[in-house]
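Anyone up for a design puzzle?
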């Protein structure tokens, strides 16, 4: 039996990061190490490690772990951040710093959880920042870069959702029925599916840059069942 594939997760305290930790326990080929800015609870029965370090120390921490792949599930909201500058500091600057540290550590696979609608010309500041960090990470030229662009994420969060977001989740099963063709990429998606797709991407061998929206995320997540 070959040694487990070492994968580092950043953003363990978020919805997708939490689901990545849970799903990793079912993958015997995977050894997960979470890197966080603060202490976070780990799911019971897990076979994983968590490193708590200031972002300034992340390059040294990543080099010490020497992972083969990194899953970046870092992100905040405009409400949580409080300003555009604070939002950009996390969703662009911190993500890019993580990617640069991973590249310097010769990480082979980098998986970035972004957002549907990311576009450099988008009217929404949120979506412009997502597109800007996608472009910046692409320039680092990882052996393999996977960008996941999910729609509205379904699943329980540790913190309360915004009222409009809660309403959107309740209405999403009906709303999704009307999102067809090119608009199907905006359908809501369970965070567990996004997590499964991220783990599968961390395992992929083919080289290149791959962007996965709704249907592609579902396909990649289904492939995880055959891994191991």
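Challenge accepted. My sequence:
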């Amino acid at each position: 039996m070959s040694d487990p594939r070492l994968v580092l997760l950043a953003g363990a305290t978020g919805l997708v990061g939490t689901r990545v930790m849970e799903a990793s326990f079912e993958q015997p080929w995977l050894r997960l190490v979470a890197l966080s800015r603060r202490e976070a609870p780990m799911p019971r029965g897990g076979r994983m490690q968590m490193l708590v370090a200031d972002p300034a120390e992340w390059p040294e921490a990543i080099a010490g772990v020497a992972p083969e792949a990194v899953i970046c599930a870092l992100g905040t909201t405009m409400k949580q951040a409080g300003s555009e500058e604070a939002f950009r500091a996390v969703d662009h600057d911190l993500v890019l710093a993580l990617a640069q540290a991973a590249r310097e550590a010769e990480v082979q696979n980098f998986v970035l959880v972004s957002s549907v609608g990311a576009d450099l010309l988008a009217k929404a500041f949120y979506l412009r920042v997502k597109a800007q960090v996608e472009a910046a990470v692409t320039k680092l030229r990882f052996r393999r870069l996977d960008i996941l662009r999910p729609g509205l994420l379904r699943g329980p969060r540790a913190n309360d959702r915004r009222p409009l977001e809660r309403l959107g989740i309740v209405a999403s099963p009906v709303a999704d029925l009307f999102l067809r063709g090119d608009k199907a990429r905006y359908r809501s998606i369970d965070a567990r599916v996004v997590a499964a797709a991220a783990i599968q991407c961390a395992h992929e061998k083919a080289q290149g840059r791959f962007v996965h929206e709704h249907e592609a995320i579902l396909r990649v997540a289904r492939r995880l069942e055959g891994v191991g």
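A detail worth pointing out: Residues 167-171 have pLDDT under 50 and may be disordered.
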